[in-house]
Amino acid sequence: MPNGNAEVFEMMEITTSLQLVSMCILPTVISAFRSAFRSRAAVELENFALRHQLNVLKRSLKHRPRLTSADRLLWVVLSRLWADWRSALTIVQPQTVIAWHRKAFRLFWTWKVRNGQPGRPAVFREVRDLIRRMSRENPLWGAPHIHGELLKLGITIGETSVAKYMVRRRQPPSQTWRAFLNNHVKTLVSVDFFTVPTIGFQVLYVFLVLAHERRRVHFNVTAHPTAEWTAQQLREAFPFDQIPRYLLRDRDKIFGDDFRRQVKDMQIQEVLSAPRSPWQRAYVERVIGSIRRECLDHVIVFNEASLRRMLSLYFSYYHETRPHLSLEKDSPEPRKVQGPELGRVVAVPRVGGLHHRYERHAA
What we know:
There is one protein chain. The chain is of the alpha/beta class. It has 4 domains: about 1-35; about 40-120, no CATH class; about 125-175 and about 335-345, no CATH class; about 185-325, Ribonuclease H-like superfamily/Ribonuclease H (Nucleotidyltransferase, domain 5), CATH 3.30.420.10. Helix content is about 45%, strand content about 15%. The chain is built from 11 helices and 7 strands. A 5-stranded mixed sheet has the order 3-2-1-4-5, sandwiched between helices. The protein starts with a helix and ends with a strand.
């Protein structure tokens, strides 16, 4: 029995030794077998890569491997020329080399922009300061509005550049147009009412008549609207030589028989929007929203006279100064472009200082 146990232990030692030898030799044999079928250039590149890594390890035996800019550049070049470069890389991860390449690409284009063809033209400091000043003094203005003001001052700049230099806020100053009626704007008008509460909790009614072609607005204020009063406003808004063809309105009962009779006598065709569909009257609804955001939300109305005075100031600004997106950022009454040769830029308060108009004045 003892002899039998000795033989068994001896066989186990031999088996273990063979396994260890096979584990050490097998990878070498496989590597040699693979290298026999590779091209000479690939073998030379692999040897070069391995030697380079040994040199890196030798020069940093007491510390973790430290790679220089030349080392990084070498591996970036190898990654471009040698498809199997990942198999020979052991010091760093392949993703690190890819990150080096991306960083080098960014540095290359930075150098090319600075030393080669110029990119986007620089915005002068005076223009940047003016954009920030407009943005601070008019928190309700967005980039399109400020861009329109700059165009009227003879300053050529992109709207994206204006947005870049504006003062940042948590909420956008206003919304843009979302819908347009793409039909006969030259012969189409819209009418609508909206209400304004006073300091004494009285409700006043504002009647708007909007000509779609140049966004001109006729308005009036009353505490007791009637169909006869509404018809009279329509006669005052459009003299006989400026009668539109179509009138767009909602189905409010305030537009009674007297109003419909007046519209028919003026040979205007009424177009009624569907119930509870304000988007079908997008132009006038947008004007009402602009009046509230840019004026009425920032003041307290005392009575009918104060509301009429405030709206008169606002519509004077609206017609003469305010840029409109649909009018190629011009005003309903076209504004002249004031170039830099006229002098420096000054701010003229409008609507009681709620808005500003920027003009050129001689220094």
